[in-house]
Structures are given as structure tokens and as C-alpha cells.
Amino acid sequence: MIAERTLVVWVPDWPVHALLRDDGADGLSPDAPLALIANHLVVACSPAARREGVRTGIREREAQTRCPELAVYPHDPETDDRRFAPVAAALEQLVPGVEVVRAGLCAMRARGPSRYYDGEAPAGEAVLRLAAELGLPDARVGIADGRFAAEQAARAASTDLGVSAPLEGLRIVEPGGSPAFLSPLPVSRAVDAGLAETLQGLGIRTLGALAALPEDAVRQRFGPQGLTAHRRATAFGAGPGAEVRPRQPVRELSVELSFDTPIDAADQLAFACSALAERFIGGLTEDRLVCTALRIELTDDVGARHEREWAHPRHFTAADTVGRIRWQAASATRETERGGAGVTNVRITPVHTDHAASHEPGLWSTEPDERVHHHLSRAQSRLGHTGVGTVALAGGRLLADRQRFVPWSTTRVERATARASASGPWPGALTGPAPSQVFPEPIPAVLLGASGSPVGIDADDLLTEDPAQLLVAATRFDAPVAAWSPPWAVRERWWEGAPARFRLQVQLADGDAWLLIFRTGAWAAEGRYD
């Protein structure tokens, strides 16, 4: 069975194109000798570097020896994928059903485009015309039986046997002619380096020699990898749709609204964006998604942009989205340096989405939680974003520093940062159980020894004498000090000359316990254990 007709679009040296299209590529010339390096090997190079003898796969030092003017840059696969996404999206607008094999290489079934454009050559011409409009004049198009043969056709020269070149950059292998076209190609085109070396050692150096072997013998001797290579060499098709697996086009979930007249009042802006919020949530609902975090971008008439991410304890509704727009607009207008007469553009983008099925009500009613959320949201809508919140554990050495107020609709990024800082290393922090009562500001205290003199810290970071009596806020406790821990230092910003602080746990004879801190020559009560 011959494979179905396939059209392949190939952009030579795509990593170089991606580098030149990246945001930090100002000043780079496409005519300069460039090379991208990974693991000290050349991954891709520009035509100017290739003319100087630079080739893919050679070592970086050898490439610089061949071309002393060569500019080398680290290869970033994420940049390749990110910069190729708009190209793939443009191809999908021209020809539906595109499979992105990798960045710089796309495949699609040739039957539909050839019928629409009245022939394979006109279809290839339309694709090349689009590539030129996208700034890719060196793009190549190959049409043959199967994706592998079409890719090899795109790489072929116009003088190769079995290939016709109606246009510059277009190569077509006639139906049924793919096995003959592939026959003289080296076997390394279809297999990896290890299997290619094995096949060449057995005298199988071309795809034609591999195709001449019985399929069962190849499968038994070389396994699935050898069978795949044999089917590539014979242009064997596994049935309709097996060669090309089109991706599902990515749906744009962001929504945007522009105003001819700038809007300065937060309430007016929220009212104007009500339909926008409904459209945003409706688009997610159609895809059976819910939004748990979103980003709102407000742009004023002078081009200043106010951007912020918002998270939701459950998932956003249209009313919640409108509320976030109002809060953000209110905070933006309080910035004195913002300028502008008002907001002219609003854009809402989902940052985190989840399947709607994961947020459906459970078997048992969750009405109390919904009621709590409803009332807190109503109170927050009246009091503002920071009017309602919870307390989270943050990082810090002192107990008061570890308390962090979190607004009810804080961002997920802020929560992740709080968790990370809380678990980070904090030398001098309390490692044992925390006091049940923490004072917002430490209360002045006095620690006395048996002689009645104040207890301090000596040069060796030790107590000057054993504590015997504790006074907190001028209140003397009748119970004497029964036990105490060794003092431990809390040293912060010592390079700026900040004095060290010392912490101490003391327990009275009646079981009462206190956490003390010694700073600037005086004691203070930081917390109390009940």
C-alpha cells in the first residue's frame, strides 16, 4: 500500500531564523556568519557560516577555526518552538490540518490543498507565497507519497532523479514514484547513527538496498526501528490519516476591548467591561474549562500599561472578573506618575485553567463553603481588594515577620512565593513549637539574676549570669525562673553594621514559658507559651 500524498513545508536553518526573530536579537544580521551551539557542537548555522566551511555537528572550536569571524550563541529549543508557533498558525489559516513535526518542519495532507488550488504545484506555490510573506523566502516545499518521502523531496536538488521542480523551492515526486526516488539515498536518512552503522557494516548502504529485503526478515533482525526504516524506504502507507496527525488549532481564549473615549472612573470601566467578562467566561465554558487565575492589562491613552495577575479561591465568574477590573482600575488611578486621561484598552488573559468537571459539586453538598465564599466575596466587593483576607505563614526569623496578610483573591504566584520563603533557610529562626501568643510588637521585659542585677549577653554570646526572675511590662511574676535555653544569635545585615540580636526561651516554676529577644542592651517578650 503506497502512502497517501503528503505536503511538507521545511524552513532550512530554522534555529537561526528563530534567533534573528527573538526580542534580544537587535543588531544581528542574517548575512553574518552565525552558529548555534549545544554541548559544544554546532546545531545550526547561517548560510554565510556554511560558505566558510561550518557544518552542523562539528565542534565549536573547529567551527571557529574554519571561520574566525563566526558569532556563536547558545541554542534554546524553547525559542525555536515559540517563534515557530505564529508560522504554524498562519499555515493553518491557509491549509487546515497541519502537523508540526518539529520547529521548522510541518506536514499536511496534499489531497485537500491540491483539489482547492487545482493541482499540487499551485498548492505548493500558495504555501511558498505565504512563507515569503512571513519573511521566510528560503522555505522549501516537498510533495510525495508519505511524510518521509515528502521531507526528503523538500531537501532534494532540482537535478535529483525522480523529482520535478515547477518552481524554485518546490519539489514534487509523482504518485507511485517515491520508492524509486528514495532508492539512491543513504540509509542514514531513515535511521539513527547506531543502526545506520550496523546496516552499512552489513553492506546495506542505500534505502533501495534496505527496501529490497523482506519485511519479516527486517523485523526479526532489527526490531521495530528497522521495520519503521523499511517502510520509509518502500513508501509504505499504513492507511488514511496514519502519516499526518494534525494538531488541534489552539483557540485564543484572551478577550480584548478598546474604547474611543478614555474611561477614568473605575466603576464606569467595570460597567463597560461587563459584556467583555461574559464573553471571556463564555469562551472558557464552551471549551469546558474554568479559569482559576487570570491576567488583566489596562492600557491608557498615553500607552502606559497597568498589568496584574489575579487568582481565585475556586474559579472566576463574570461578576468576579468585573470586580477584579474595578479593583485594578482603582489602584491604577492612585498612581501619581501614571498619567493619561483614562483607560482605552482592556485585555483579559487566562493564566491558569482547569477542566470544568474538576470543579463540579461533589456527591455531598458543599453549601457551607459556598456560603462562606459568597459572603466574603460580597464583603470584599464593598471594602476593596485588601479589605478581606486570611493569614499565611511567610519566611522570617522573628515571629512577627512570619505573619503575612493574604487578600482573599491573591495571586497564585504570591502564594507560591510565600510557601517557598517560609520553607527556606532562616538562620536564627525558631525551630521548635511556636508560642501560642505572638505580640505584634515585642513587650519590654527585664530578666534578673539571683543577685538582682540585670542579665545580659557577654562577648561569648552567653548569659552574664543565671536568670532568676522575669518582669514583663513592669509586672513581676511570683514564680522564679526554673529553666532556660542557651541564647542563640540572630545576625542580619552584618555587613551594614547591624547589631546582633539574641533569643532566649525561659520557663517559670509554675509552667509559664516565654520567648525573649535581647536587642540594643534590653530584653523584650516576643511571644508566650500557654
UniProtKB/TrEMBL annotation:
<dbReference type="InterPro" id="IPR043502">
    <property type="entry name" value="DNA/RNA_pol_sf"/>
</dbReference>
<protein>
    <submittedName>
        <fullName>Protein ImuB</fullName>
    </submittedName>
</protein>
<dbReference type="Pfam" id="PF00817">
    <property type="entry name" value="IMS"/>
</dbReference>
<keyword id="KW-0227">DNA damage</keyword>
<dbReference type="InterPro" id="IPR043128">
    <property type="entry name" value="Rev_trsase/Diguanyl_cyclase"/>
</dbReference>
<comment type="function">
    <text>Poorly processive, error-prone DNA polymerase involved in untargeted mutagenesis. Copies undamaged DNA at stalled replication forks, which arise in vivo from mismatched or misaligned primer ends. These misaligned primers can be extended by PolIV. Exhibits no 3'-5' exonuclease (proofreading) activity. May be involved in translesional synthesis, in conjunction with the beta clamp from PolIII.</text>
</comment>
<dbReference type="InterPro" id="IPR050356">
    <property type="entry name" value="SulA_CellDiv_inhibitor"/>
</dbReference>
<feature type="domain" description="UmuC">
    <location>
        <begin position="33"/>
        <end position="194"/>
    </location>
</feature>
<comment type="similarity">
    <text>Belongs to the DNA polymerase type-Y family.</text>
</comment>
<dbReference type="GO" id="GO:0006281">
    <property type="term" value="P:DNA repair"/>
</dbReference>
<dbReference type="InterPro" id="IPR001126">
    <property type="entry name" value="UmuC"/>
</dbReference>
